[in-house]
Amino acid sequence: MSSANILRIRDKKADKPEAANYRVKQLGALFAWAVKHELAKLNPVTGVEKLSNSSVGYYTWTECDVEKFEAHYPIGSRERLAMAIMLYLGVRRSDAVRLGPQHENKEKCTITFTVFKGRKKSPKTLTLPILPPLRAIIDASEVGETAYLVTKSGRPHGSGDSFGNWFRDCCRAAGLPDCSPHGLRKAASVRCAEAGASVHELMAMFGWDTPSMAMVYTRMAEQRRLASSAAEKLVK
Description:
Elements: H1 3-11, H2 17-36, H3 63-72, H4 78-89, H5 93-96, E1 104-105, E2 110-114, E3 125-129, H6 132-139, H7 160-173, H8 181-194, H9 199-206, H10 211-235
Antiparallel strand pairs: 1-2, 2-3
Helix pairs in contact: 1-2, 4-6, 4-8, 8-10, 9-10
C-alpha cells in the first residue's frame, strides 16, 4: 500500500475530519507494527497530513435551552428524566442508558458505576452525588428494574446510539434542533466551571484523565468573568 492509497482512504471521510484522522492513525499504528516485525518495508502513513477540523464540536446547551426543554417536558416524563440524568451527573449517553437503581447507595446519596467508554482497556469507576433535583425527578418517574431510562414498552434502551436518536427527536419536538445528549454534558461542564469548580474537581466529576479538557471550561469561565468585570469599567 502506498501513501496515495492512504490519502484516498482518508479522503473518503473528508466530511468527518475526526473520523478520517482516526482512520489514518489506526493505519499508521498497524503499519508501524508491520515494519517492526519485518512484514512491511515502509509505513505509507508517514508524511500523510491530518485533515483540519474547523468544527467546534457538539452544540452546548444554554440555560435558556434547558428551561425550554423543562417547560416542554414536565417532571415525571421519560424525557425530563433523561435530561436530568445527563445534566446533573454529567454522564455520556452510553452511561446514561446503563445506570439504574442497582448503582445507588441510598445512605450516602451517591451512585457508583464503571464508565462504559474505555472499559476494556482501562476500566474507570466513578462515584457521583445524586443531587436533590435529580433525586426528586427519579422518584417522580417510572423507572426500570435495572435501568432508569426505559422505552415506552418498559425495556432498557438497546444502546447509546438508539437512545441518542430518540433524545434528539425529543429535542426537536421541544423546538431545540441543535441540542443533543453530548451537548448536555458540555452544559454541565460549563455550569461547574462558572460556579468556580477547579480543574481537578472537573476531572473527578466528568472522568477526564488529563487536565486539558477541564482547562477548556475553566479558561472559558475565567474569560467570561474577566470580560464582565472589564465591561463594567466601560460604564464607569
